[in-house]
Amino acid sequence: MNPVGPALHIHPGDCSADSLRRAEVGGRIIVWSEVLHEGPLRPVADENYRRERAVFLSAHTGGARTPGQCETKLRRQDEELAACREFPETVLWFDACLYDQTILVHLLDRLAGERARLSLLCVGEYPGFEAFHGLGELDAAQLAGLLPQRVPVTPAMLDLAQRAWQALAADTPLA
Hints:
Strand order of the largest sheet: 2-1-3-4-5
Helix content: 40-55%
Distance between the termini: 35 Å
Radius of gyration: 16 Å
Number of strands: 5
Low-confidence stretches: none
Order of helices and strands: EHEHHEHEHEH
Mean pLDDT: 89
Structural class: alpha/beta
Largest sheet: 5 strands, mixed
């Protein structure tokens, strides 16, 4: 898949995003991080959900972040996510771990209604790493080398992500 103009690159971690900035792949690089495999989840990301998540996240920082600080971060991430409308392509960079996969499912659910061209890099292993622990281990050149391997996000992927998010955010774990 060849690049089509500058892209919005979304990473679930600061470390890999910093390395990609050094790779100078062009476009805008943002970090979208949250511990979505813990705490209350809701099918719709609105102000009430954001407030509820902020209280939960604050309680789990050991007092390092106030609910207001957590809510500000969540709001900023949501605003940055809206930038997908400004770019010809949005590239999602994720590992195969639970932390990343819950964020990926959430973001695909959120982006399903956008008219954005989405592509995905989901990396579970990397040559030369016997025990690969994620994108944060890769340097700028290694990350840049992954970009041509991205795949278009298909309607079937979006449908699966939407169903997975609805199940994760359900009031009961039955789904």
